[in-house]
Design a protein that fits this description.
With 754 residues, this protein is an alpha+beta fold. It is 28% helix and 23% strand. Strands 3, 4, 5, 6, 7, 8, 9, 10, 11, 12, 13, 14, 15 and 16 form a 14-stranded antiparallel beta sheet that branches. It has a 6-stranded mixed beta sheet with strand order 17-30-31-35-32-33. Helix 4 crosses helix 18, helix 11 (466-486) packs antiparallel against helix 12 and helix 14 packs across helix 15 (567-579).
């Protein structure tokens, strides 16, 4: 559009609009007052209204800590909240324990009270809200394994608190409240809470009636503490444990020794600034900085460190173990996180990443079969999604110099997960007929429409996902081969390297797509690359359609380019994906492919298999298109507002892509120890690493308009490659990019290497 000049009247209208916008949206809008530290840029409300599926949640926690909470509601638009949360035991899960304060007499007492609320404010380390009908001001601050609530009662009735356990027990011991809850698979979470004021009465709540007693158990077990009318402010502090109630008390007493909420808030703020401060960005827009630090905050939500005073409970064998000085981490959906989340840990917190990988080894040892986990959670491995991408996290860390975990054991566990466990999605069963077919024929066979499933290891709803599993397993086998080579296992290396080319067996040379084949080796025909495959394309692909899985050969991009017909044709096909229409109405498209949101043509910005795709232009001498796509996609789909995340965030999986991309580079192939350069968002970004070195990305003249790299220098020397190695970054230095508003198509034509 042509440039326009605003007159004073128009400028006044703009200022008035901005003031109204800030007033209406509060923390969901850009902060009117400039933030003074990194954590002040974080907006937990970003993405709290979903485009279609699951929104982000405004999680209050410290980095990778055991204790996480968020208001219990569907999303930001919910009119009421259910009680006050005490602990969330899984990403996107509901609160295990609940606290419901009462200041006005209730016609009907319930284990969890539903509240009308207002004046809510959330940041990463604290929470405040006003409960309208009860006239209670709530303030909250969190530590690692404990937290504190401060409640001010404006009403005239006796203050009361209902402590609830959904499935467990609650009891009063004259000093405090203890409780437990069964969260499945032999796993319990424990609570110990105490107030700065002694209650006058303690009772039980059962079937809506208040009964005498100090212990309750079963479904919706609840006890009520009643305090004197004269007590208008009450502080409640509590600890959480996965070991027992005594450990919950010990966690509380170790972390929060007073009832001073402000001290806990100050500690939380300092802790977050230390974590977020590992990456310092300067310049760019205020909006970009909010998006960057909010995304970085989300990468610290998972996995969680559940070691408690040197011990941890494992949901993988139902036992309490000594951690021997290495914290135990769990709750990590590896299908989502291997792509960018684990590489980000390797870059800025390699010690933590080594502890995470060692935790995975421990899990493997504690489960009945010595198989690397796929979706490790608090109460064990849920074996979700397709493929076994934990091996990529192992290889990526090893190739980047992390050796302080049991690599040999990790290799054996990953090998077992790929060759002994079934490849069928969402299954923890041993390998069966489908797996034998894969290793004999080199692909997962697809069923023809109307055929009945013959393999018992296949999940009834998730199906075979034959193309997705073939491609994903080819990458896993490449990772296994590279790790075998590093460990001197020549026979394994040669075997798995050969199998890593299995993706070729489903490539249709006529259409240039990966196309499902039946057991006889014939392509399914007729076939629609957008809509065939049923709900979520699970009968052929998985959550995403053929246009996304067309590029799912992360480990051998040069070969994929040759299959496509060379670099020029490769770029043409990439462009076509971004231009290809949905083919049906949005209603019909998303009804069948609800995970395939955030569309630009057939490209989906909302799901992890798409994350590396915009960087593929770099490998075909069209780096300027990567620069254009990255700047455009993030500007289109990631915003500092309530709908500012295009799809399921998955606790850091999607946000890590944003962090890397805004810095100016991305790990296209985890396990290769190189990064692909994109288009930086900031004038200067400084990475402070554990080894004491710093690496700086300087982007001169960068802006929304000046997105194209004109020239580059690495440590003062001319740089014409779209790649930079992890070694280059780890030893410290400076990548200097000169940016402009027109593409320099001759920059970045040096052949990337693996």
């Amino acid at each position: 559009m042509p440039k326009t000049r605003f007159n004073k009247f128009q400028q006044g209208l703009v200022k008035t609009f901005l003031l109204l916008y800030f007033s209406a949206f509060g923390t969901t809008a850009l902060h009117a007052q400039s933030p003074s530290s990194a954590v002040d840029y974080v907006n937990p409300y970003m993405g709290n209204i979903s485009h279609l599926l699951v929104p982000t949640y405004p999680t209050v926690h410290l980095p990778n800590s055991l204790l996480r909470v968020y208001p219990e509601r569907g999303d930001y638009t919910a009119d009421r909240i259910r009680g006050l949360p005490l602990i969330v035991t899984s990403h996107r899960g509901s609160s295990a324990f609940n606290l419901s304060p009462i200041a006005n007499k209730q016609k009907e007492l319930k284990p969890i009270i539903s509240y009308s609320y207002d004046q809510e404010q959330i940041n990463p380390y604290s929470y405040s809200v006003y409960l309208d009908e009860e006239q209670i001001q709530v303030d909250y601050a969190v530590s690692h394994q404990s937290a504190i609530y401060q409640l001010e009662f404006e009403g005239t009735d006796d203050p009361q608190f209902i402590f609830n356990s959904r499935r467990g027990e609650m009891k009063w011991d004259e000093d405090g409240v203890s409780g437990s809850q069964d969260i499945g698979n032999r796993t319990k979470v424990y609570l110990y809470a105490e107030a700065d004021v002694k209650p006058e009465k303690v009772g039980l709540l059962k079937d809506g009636k208040l009964l005498e007693g100090t212990a309750a158990n079963g479904d919706q077990a609840a006890i009520i503490l009643q305090f004197p009318k004269t007590q208008r402010k009450i502080n409640i502090r509590y600890g959480i444990s996965f070991i027992d109630a005594e450990q919950a008390k010990a966690n509380l007493r170790r972390e929060i020794k007073t009832y001073d909420l402000e001290k806990v808030k100050d500690y939380g703020k300092n802790t977050w600034n230390k974590a977020l401060g590992k990456l310092k960005v300067e310049g760019g827009t205020e909006n970009d900085r909010h998006i960057f630090y909010t995304s970085l905050y989300r990468t610290f939500e998972r996995p969680v460190n559940i070691s408690e005073d040197g011990r941890y409970f494992s949901g993988f064998d139902g036992q309490v173990h000594q951690d021997s000085g290495i914290p135990f981490y769990t709750d990590d959906w590896i299908w989502d996180s291997y792509r960018a989340h684990h590489p980000l840990n390797v870059l800025i917190e390699p010690t933590k990443e080594s502890h995470i990988l060692q935790s995975f080894v421990r899990m493997s040892e504690q489960m009945p079969n010595f198989w690397f986990p796929t979706f490790p959670e608090i109460n064990g491995d849920s074996r979700r999604m397709n493929s076994n991408h934990g091996v990529a996290a192992i290889l990526d860390a090893y190739k980047k110099g992390i050796r302080s975990f049991e690599v040999e054991r990790a290799y054996q566990a990953a090998k077992g997960a790929i060759t002994e466990k079934t490849l069928a999605p969402w299954s923890g069963k041993p390998a069966g007929g489908m797996d034998r077919f894969f290793y004999e024929k080199g692909y997962i066979p697809a069923l023809r429409p109307g055929d009945k499933e013959i393999y018992p290891e296949v999940h009834g709803f998730e199906k075979r996902q034959p193309v997705a599993v073939t491609l994903g397993t080819s990458y896993d086998l490449w990772c296994l081969a590279q790790l075998a080579k590093e460990l001197g296992k020549t026979a394994d290396y040669e075997k798995f390297l050969q199998l890593s080319f299995n993706y070729r067996n489903l490539f249709n040379e006529k259409t240039k797509f990966f196309h499902p084949k039946d057991a006889e080796g014939k392509f399914l025909e007729p076939f629609d690359y957008v809509f065939s495959g049923g709900q979520g394309a699970r009968e052929t692909y998985g959550e995403n359609n053929a246009w996304i899985y067309r590029w799912d050969v992360q480990h051998n991009i040069p070969d994929l380019i040759q299959l496509m017909g060379g670099k020029q044709q490769f770029v043409k096909e990439l462009d076509q994906m971004f231009n290809q229409g949905l083919g049906k109405s949005k209603f019909d498209f998303y009804q069948q492919l609800p995970d395939h949101t955030g569309n630009v043509g057939q490209f989906s910005m909302a799901n992890e298999p798409s994350l590396h795709i915009p960087y593929l232009y770099n490998y075909a001498e069209a780096a300027w298109m990567t620069q254009k796509r990255i700047k455009t996609l993030i500007k289109q789909w990631f915003r500092n507002d309530l709908m500012g995340v295009p799809g399921d965030e998955d606790g850091g999986g999607l946000s890590s892509f944003v962090v890397f991309s805004q810095l100016g580079f991305y790990p296209v192939t985890p396990g290769s120890a190189v990064y692909s350069i994109g288009s930086p968002f900031f004038d200067k970004a400084t990475i402070s690493m554990e080894n004491g070195k710093t690496f700086t990305v300087i982007a001169k003249n960068t802006s929304d308009k000046n997105k194209y790299i004109q020239s580059a220098k690495l440590n003062g020397k001319p740089w014409n490659s779209t790649e930079i190695t992890h070694v280059d970054i780890a030893k410290g230095g400076t990548l200097e990019l000169l940016m402009g508003d027109k593409a320099n198509k001759s920059w970045g034509v040096s052949q990337p290497s693996f």
